[in-house]
């Protein structure tokens, strides 16, 4: 069974077998959509930071006092040149951290900004200790899972890695936790950790389209929460070990409600690949 098949099976388990995280549903054909209540979730950004060639860059976005992080991501301004990668994206109690690696080439830089989705409700954050995680040998691919406390579900999450050459293939929620897959393209051993942010409130997982990525290019997929639901965080899935995450970005709709999740990935292989956005949504 391929990694893509395993993840599709996991997605089916989420949709069919879970209780707290649910699939989207539709009402009768003649039902009118209810007016959307204002979202209690707000989106905040950090500051732009630049990374020179070969540099591992860390950026942070923070919630205002009294608010708590539910999820987050970043955007890499790399002039559409597919050689800048997210190698870490994870949260704390009131902040979100993103790590990016610039492989554009000498005399080329990238600008990165982090985003965090914040809520007035406290959340549980599980940060794996340095002694946790999983070893990733040179040239190998490994997956790792972090689980929420009993009775809680993920609102956001993501990987931490030991170096800028631990490239992320997938970072996805499941019934009671978070899973990430990374490939070590370095000559030295690496390590993969997973952090997860959790809540006792029910959430729903929604999927964007499987967007095709031609060899040597990047592609994007966007998912939007149904009207009346609001984004807390999201994940990204690629189809192959040669497709790497470029960035993941929460954003607001025209009414300034945080409902969209966009993911971009780079295909460094010789055959077409796909990238799929996974959005986590909840009601106010």
Provide the descriptors you would attach to this structure in a database record.
284 residues; globular; 4-stranded antiparallel β-sheet; mainly beta; 1 helix; Jelly Rolls
Describe it for me?
With 284 residues, the protein is mostly beta strands. The chain has a single domain (3-15, 38-282), classed as Proprotein convertase subtilisin/kexin type 9 (Jelly Rolls, Sandwich). 5% of the residues lie in helices and 55% in strands. The strands form 6 sheets. Strands 1, 16, 17, 19 and 22 form a 5-stranded mixed sheet that branches. Strand 13 (166-174) and strand 14 form a beta hairpin. Mean pLDDT is 85; it is low at 11-36.
What is the strand and helix layout of this fold?
Blueprint: H1 3-17, E1 21-22, E2 42-45, E3 49-51, E4 56-62, E5 68-77, E6 84-91, E7 95-102, E8 110-119, E9 124-126, E10 134-136, E11 141-147, E12 153-161, E13 166-174, E14 177-184, E15 190-199, E16 203-207, E17 211-213, E18 218-224, E19 230-238, E20 243-252, E21 258-267, E22 273-282
Parallel strand pairs: 1-16
Antiparallel strand pairs: 2-8, 3-8, 4-7, 5-8, 6-7, 9-15, 10-15, 11-14, 12-15, 13-14, 16-22, 17-22, 18-21, 19-22, 20-21
Keywords: Signal
Signal peptide: 1-23
Protein name: Secreted protein
Count of domains = 1
Overall shape: it is: globular
CATH superfamily: Proprotein convertase subtilisin/kexin type 9
Number of strands: 22
CATH architectural designation: Sandwich
Helix content: under 10%
Report the β-strand fraction as a percent range: over 45%
Structural class, by secondary structure, is: mainly beta
- The N- and C-terminal alpha carbons lie at a distance of 39 Å
Instruction: Count up the helices.
Output: 1
Radius of gyration in whole Å, from Cα? 18 Å
- Overall mean pLDDT score? 85
Query: Uncertain regions: pLDDT < 50 for 5+ in a row?
Result: 11-36
In N-to-C order, the SSE pattern is: HEEEEEEEEEEEEEEEEEEEEEE
What is CATH's topology name? Jelly Rolls
CATH class, named: Mainly Beta
Largest sheet, strands/sense/barrel: 5 strands, mixed
Protein name: Secreted protein
Signal peptide: 1-23
Keywords: Signal
Organism: Yinghuangia soli
């Amino acid at each position: 069974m391929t990694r893509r098949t395993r993840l599709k099976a996991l997605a089916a388990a989420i949709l069919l077998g879970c209780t707290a995280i649910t699939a989207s549903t539709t009402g009768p054909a003649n039902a009118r959509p209810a007016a959307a209540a204002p979202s209690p979730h707000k989106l905040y950004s950090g500051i732009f930071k630049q990374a020179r060639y070969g540099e591992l860059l860390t950026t942070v976005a923070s919630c205002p006092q009294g608010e708590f992080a539910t999820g987050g991501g970043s955007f890499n301004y790399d002039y559409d040149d597919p050689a800048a990668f997210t190698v870490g994206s994870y949260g704390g109690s009131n902040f979100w951290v993103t790590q990016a690696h610039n492989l554009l080439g000498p005399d080329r830089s990238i600008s990165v900004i982090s985003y965090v989705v914040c809520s007035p409700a406290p959340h549980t954050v599980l940060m794996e200790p340095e002694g946790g995680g999983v070893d990733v040998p040179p040239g190998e691919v490994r997956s790792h899972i972090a689980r929420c406390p009993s009775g809680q579900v993920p609102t956001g999450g993501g990987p931490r890695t030991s170096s800028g050459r631990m490239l992320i293939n997938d970072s996805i929620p499941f019934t009671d936790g978070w899973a990430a897959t990374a490939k070590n393209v370095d000559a030295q051993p690496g390590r993969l950790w997973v952090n997860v942010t959790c809540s006792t409130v029910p959430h729903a997982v929604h999927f964007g389209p499987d967007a095709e990525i031609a060899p040597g290019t990047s592609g994007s997929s966007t998912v939007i929460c149904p009207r009346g639901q609001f984004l807390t965080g999201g994940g990204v899935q690629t189809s192959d070990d040669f497709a790497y995450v470029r960035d993941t970005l929460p954003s607001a709709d025209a009414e300034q409600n945080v409902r969209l999740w966009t993911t971009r990935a780079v295909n460094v292989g010789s055959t077409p690949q796909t990238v799929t956005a996974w959005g986590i949504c909840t009601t106010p």
